[in-house]
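Recall that a protein's primary structure is simply its ordered list of amino acids. Everything else, from secondary elements to tertiary packing, is in principle encoded there. The following example makes that idea concrete.
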Amino acid sequence: MTWLRTAVFNERPELDEAIAEGLNDSDCRMMARYSDLDNMAERLAKLDADVAIMVLKALDSARVEQLKSVIADNELPVALFADDADPGIIVKLVKADVGAYVYDGFSPERFRAVVAVAVARYVEMRKLRQTADDATRKLEERKAVERAKGLLMSHHKMSEDDAYKTLRQLAMNRGQRIVDTAHNTIDMLEMVGKGASR
């Protein structure tokens, strides 16, 4: 079994025993426990934690922004327990990438499921971001190839098909990806164009 290295931030000491029970019945192993959120990002970075469990007394917009920053800096799933059902806060938590949020109480019996939801949601969000990043990168690469073809067509009076074949041949000759050749071609032909316009 692979244990999840877990950092616990608990502002409610009366729940220490229940949290320990929840941890013992789960795949989590506590690396450290803190009674406040001070220096949370630095603490998590030093621990190299797999998941963060937060049991908070109260939530407000400032705290949600703090959580958002910490999650972005440390890229880890967060399971949050708090006594706040304000719909506006809940929407902000979702946007901050809090993986699971439990309102009104901590229950050791639900702990394992809550952590599993936080981890699963985190993994799914990473996949979605990666897919979006890949799509953006491919679009940018396609734009570069199209731009290079356009410059070749205008500078060398060639057809679109011939411009593409030229790029492909240059890429093969240089052992490059066609997008890298496209960027080099753009740089070179734009410099030539600037020189000619002087």
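Residues 108-156 form the longest helix (49 residues). Strands lie at 4-10, 28-34, 51-55, 78-82, 100-103.
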